[in-house]
Specification:
Helix 4 runs antiparallel to helix 5 (94-112). The protein is elongated. It is 73% helix and 0% strand. The chain has helices at 10-18, 27-52, 56-69, 76-90, 94-112. It is mainly α. The chain has a single domain, classed as Four Helix Bundle (Hemerythrin (Met), subunit A). The relative contact order is 0.16.
Length: 114
């Protein structure tokens, strides 16, 4: 997923504190959640750029990675949306990819909302 984010704004830390299932996630993972969420914000932009370029491989890869990591960080909705993005990219369904990317963007914004 490339670029990593170092220091995170306080809103990311607050979102992590308020996120569902926080108590079930091991402390080392909880500590990494702000960077995880910041990187998902970057993924939204990457997904939009890849979709505009009809780079279905990149869309599929990002979707696959989100599917594989979301629930582990306590965000099952990211896993679910990642799966939808991956499937849509595999089928080269531009409309479904666009809808799923928009849903992903809303999901990340909702988690980060103070």
């Amino acid at each position: 997923m490339g670029e990593q984010i170092g220091e995170q704004p306080d809103v990311l830390h607050e979102a992590v504190e308020l996120a569902h299932g926080c108590e079930a996630i091991p402390d080392p993972i909880v500590a990494r959640r702000p960077a995880f969420l910041a990187n998902r914000r970057l993924d939204v932009a990457k997904l939009r750029d890849a979709l505009a370029a009809r780079d279905f491989t990149t869309v599929q890869t990002i979707g696959h990675n989100c599917k594989g990591t979301g629930a582990g960080y306590g965000f099952p909705e990211i896993t679910s949306i990642g799966s939808a993005i991956e499937s849509a990219a595999r089928a080269q369904d531009v409309e479904k990819m666009s809808q799923s990317i928009a849903q992903f963007d809303l999901c990340i914004a909702d988690v980060l909302r103070p």
